[in-house]
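Record type: monomer structure entry
Structure origin: computed from sequence
Chain ID: A
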Amino acid sequence: MARNLARGILGLVLAAAATWATNYIISKMFGPEDQGQRTA
């Protein structure tokens, strides 16, 4: 049970880190997102 809990937490942390890294890289490549055109 502890192993599954640790896997779940690690999975969430890695997913968050991957999302942040992707957004950071895209932001550096294309510049910051235009705040005026956000629809969602």
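Annotation 1: The CA atoms of residues 3 and 9 lie 10 Å apart.
Annotation 2: Residues 2-30 form the longest helix (29 residues).
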